[in-house]
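User: Modeling request: complex.
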Amino acid sequence: MLLFIIVSIAEAGNVNSTVMFNHSIRLTILNSQPGDTVFVESGTFFENEIRVDKPLTIIGTKGTIIDAEEKSFIFEITADSVSILSLTLNNVGRSYTKDYAAIHASGINNFLFENITFNNPFFAFHIEKSKNGIIRNNTIYGNAVVEYNSGNGIHLWHSSNIEVVNNNIYQMRDGIYFEFVKHCKVNGNISKNNVRYGLHFMFSNDDEYNDNIFENNGAGVAVMFSKRIYMRNNIFELNWGTASYGLLLKEINDAEITDNKFSKNTIGVNAEGSNRVNFERNTFVNNGWAIRFLGACYANKLQHNNFMYNAFDIAYSGNINGNQFDGNYWSEYTGYDLNKDNIGDIPFRPVKLFSYVVSQTPETIVLLRSLFVDILNYSEKVSPIFTPDNLKDNLPLMHPSP
Amino acid sequence: MFKILKYSFYDLMRSRWSYLYFIFYLLLGLILLFLNRDVSKAVITLLNIILVLTPLIGTLFGIIYFYNSKEFTELLLAQPIKRSHIFWGQYFGISLSLSLSLVLGLGIPFLAYGIFQSTEIFNFMTLLLIGAMLTFIFVALAFNLALIFDDKIKGFGVAILTWLSFAVIYDGIFLVLLLVFNDYPLDRFALGATLFNPIDLSRILILLKLDISALLGYTGAVFQNFFGTNLGIILTFTLLNLWIIIPVLAIKVISKHKDF
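Assistant: Request completed. Predicted assembly structure:
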């Protein structure tokens, strides 16, 4: 097995000299100059606590493995313009007091982490107070079982302008965690089988996430206390369980949720204290509840969404409605369309009396699909008493929008 | 007993009502599959229909058949045959023929559509089994009522009321109780209350297999822990069997003491 490291001092693309340092990445980095490129050959290095405090590019090849043997962190980066590419980082130490990470970055600018595979990291990326970075094409395999002794896949804190692109994250605590993070993009990631959330946003404004897949996570995706978040083309599926949902919105203002697909979740979207959120062209299929509005949700707009075969389309608490439900497709709509303009002639009421009853007393769910409940729903449909009178779709579509 | 079973079975197989019932299910199956094009959706729609219809038809058919064949029954009673054998023979004859109409009527279109290629085969089989069991239960209840009430009108009235109470009223009272005692932990009560109504029991058994996402809320978990396990399934079927066995035994007891 070849076990050596080459430091190339690169000037305008030319490699000038090559140095080997005793099979140690740490020593090599210690002895390198700012702006160097470190090529790490294939092989397993049992190292940890590698500190990168100058601008460097660290490049591995296929089969370059750094194993921390469950002791401490692997890389700690405190310098700007660092790139780390094509490595495999294994077995980061577990701690109840320190957030050990495979790559821990603090206060840096202009970084790139690409093609890195993580096995059993406590945290994979832990990035704080940093700006202008790219985290791309990484794969993270955790083995989290319970929340209290596991870490997050990509953990960002107090950062801005970072792109998290095409990463695959499996079985961590939170797949992606953002706290006080601004102007970031989360695109094309797959976050699966995580113990808590696939994606978790806290106090993070002006971010967007597109084309991601969130599947079979403990509680789905949580977006909390944030403003101006854009969510497009994501897939939320198979988030099943006692307290599970596809997407949780808590204290969210002015968000755009468009072209997403929610399928087979206990609750598709759970919204609480969310205002001025636009739901457009989303598809909700086979969920228990498609959207559940809890308290204080006003001025939200639902348009051109497809609600198909959900046990409940909308659950709503309270009897004042300040939201707009016009122009959606509801598979349960039984009205007619005389002038054939694809808009039903009688309004549709998406909130059933039974869903109101269930929100009051959850145990009543055992009566789902019984004849009595059908009769109850029908009588409420004819003359609404418990559900807000104006909570209806005045322009229900006859066919699902594409 | 088997001779009487055979005669009443053949008698029913020749009657147009059995054909009508069979054709109804055949058409229903075909239309459902034609409209849905998705076997799992069709199974869910079918669930609602089976849960309402099989008990209703079982009750009505059972009581009509009993009253209509009263003269023949009285003729049989004059023969040296055990009373229980006469009524059990008729009971099994009618239950079997109704179940056969159901199983064949729905089975043929689903077979033709290729349920065996679908993963829904097990759910569909459970659904048919439960339909057949509900038929057995409600025909037995109807027979008991017919034995108790000699007056046809009274018998009909009480039979329909029985169906109504199992299908609707029971759930209504159940719901009201749940709402009234909102402040108490209710999941065990809810679990217990479903066991005493065969229709509720069948519905939840099927729902846990189909609509799982909605039920898996807070209460759903309790139910899933109970009904989802092998023990729960065995218990459910045992209870459904008890719902057949007890009324069937009651037929014997009531007929023994009845003065014809």
